Amino acid sequence: MSSGLVVGTAGHIDHGKTSLVRALTGVDLDALPEERERGITIALGFTPLDLPDGRRVAMVDVPGHERLVRTMVAGATGLDAVLLCISAVDGAMPQTREHLAILDLVGVRQGAVVLTMADLVDEELLELAMEDAAELVEGTFLEGAPVIASSATTGRGKQELLEVIASFSRGERASVGPFRLPVDRAFVQSGFGTVVTGTSWSGELVDGSGVRLLPGGRSVRVRGIQVHGESVDKVGAGHRVALNLAGVEKQDVPRGTLIVRGDVPETSMIDVMYTHLPDAPEVEDGAQVRVLLGTAERIGRLHLAVERDLVESGRYPAQIRLDEPLPCLPGDRFVVRWASPVITLGGGVIVDPWAPRMRRKNRAAHGQATKRLAAGETLVWLERAGEVGLPVDAWRQRSEAPAPVLGDRAFAPRVLGRLEGALLEALTAYHAEAPLSLGAHRRELRRGRLGHLDEKVFDSLVDRMANSGLVAVHGPLVRLSGFSVEPTPAQHQLKQRIAASLADAGFVGLPPKELHKLHPEPEVEALARLLEADGAAVLVPAVGWMDASVLVQLRERLRAHFEGHDALAPADFKEMTELSRKTAIPLLEWLDKSKWTARRGDARIRGSAL
Q: What is the pTM of this model?
C-alpha cells in the first residue's frame, strides 16, 4: 500500500547516502556505469521502501557532489522528509551545510540526522560527532530532530531509522488545481516508448488524459501511469510517478520539462519573497543569477523591491526577470545560485507569476504589494489588474475571496470605487453642460475616462450604481439620483410655446428642423424632450414631433373605423387624417410598430394594442 510519502537523502559526497538507501531497501541506486566507476551518485535514484506496517515509501537518493547541486535541488523539491547524512568519520562538510540550507529553502520541514559509517569510529568519537551534528542543525527545521548512528556494514540503526521514517507525515499538497509533474528523468522502454518520471506536485491525472509539455505547450496523451512500478488508473499529488507518453520522443521531454493538465502560466517575470543566506556573499541589486525550480533551471536577474542596492543576509520582496519563460504557480519554492562562482545564494517562494514589471521609482510600493500577496491578501492581483479587471474564471483559479464582478470580469473594491467615481463625475459634468436634459445616453458616457471599458462591463457598472441608488436609469438615459430639470421662467414659457406649435401642427407634426425654424432658441430640443418625458409630445420617426393629444384623437378615430370595417386602406387613412402620402406612410409604419395597427398586404387591420 503506497503511503504517498517521499523521503530523500542529502549530504556531502561520500557520506554514505547511497549505502544507507541500500541498507534500508536492499537496492543499489548507483545504477549508471559511470556512477559505479566513480563511486558517486550522478543522477537521482529512486526506489520503494516497504515499512513494517505495510506502507510503501518512495526513497530518493540525491547526489552530493557540489557540481551536481542542480540535480540535488531537483530531488529535494517535493520531499516530505529528509535523512541528512553526515559521516561519523569526517563530520559536517561545506556541502552538508549547503544541502541543509537548500532543503530549508525548498520547504522540507521534517527529517532526521543520520551519522553514517558509525562502525569506523569508537563510541567516544561517535558521541562527539552526534553532538556536533545536533549543534549543526540548531536554528534549522531539523533542530530537535532524531540523531541516529548508522552503519550500512553492520546494520546498526536500521530499525530505529525505519521507526523514524514511519513517523513522518505527508506534507500538504494541492489536491485540486492543475496536475503538475516536473520531469527528472526520461527514457525509452522497449515495447512502450517514452517514459518520464518525477514527483507529482499537485492535482490529479487519469490514465488516457491529454497533457501539455511546458515550456512550449505541446499536447500529448498519457497511455500508462505507474506508481512504484505498479500500474494505476489515476494518480494524485505527492507520489513518485512514471508516465508513458504517446507520440513523443525522449529528447522532447528533457529534465526540466513540466507535464501539466490544466492552466499553468509560463512567465519571464516573477515577484517573490527572497531569502539571502547568512553565509552567502553580498551581491548587487540586479545581479545575474541561476534560478532552480523543481527540475528546471533559468538564468535571470534579481531585483530587490526595497530601497537598497546590495543584497545581503535577510528576507526581501523582489522581482526576478528570467531569460526564458518558466512555468510556475504561487507558492512554488525556488533556489538561487550565483552564476560564477557557482554557489548557493538563497531562495524563496513565488508570490506572483503574473507580475507587472517593477519600475525603480515605485519599487517600494511594488514591494509592499508583494508582501501583502505573500501574507494572503489576494485582492492585490485585482489591484494590479487595475481598471481592466480579471476574467472571473481566472480570478476564481487564483483565489476564493469574494470580489465585485462587472460583466464577466472581477475588480478590486477600490478600483470599482474609482470607476463609480468616474461615472459620477461624468454625469455631474453632463448635467452642468445640459441642465435641461433628462440624462446622458449610455453611449455618450462610455467615452473618455470610461472609454476603455467593455460594453458589458460598463452596462454592469451602470446597473450596479442604479441598484445602489447612486444613479437613475430611464431607457438608455442615465442621470444622477436626485437630479431634476428645473427650467427658468423664460424656458418654461418657451416650453409652452413649443407645445402650442405641436398642437397647431396636428397630424402633420413638426420635423426637428421645422421646430427650430419656429423656435430658434438653443434649448428647444431639450424642452421638446421634456414635453416627451411629461407625456405631452411624441417623436415619430420620419414625421417629427407630434402633440400627444393629437395621437389620442387618432387612436379614437382608428377604433371607430375598425368598429365598422375589417381593414384600413392607405386611402382611407389619408382621408381620415387629411395627410399627404409622404406623411401618411411613415405615420402608418409607426402605428404598426406601436401595434395600433398590423399590416396585411397594402392595408391595415386592428392591432393588438388598439
A: 0.79
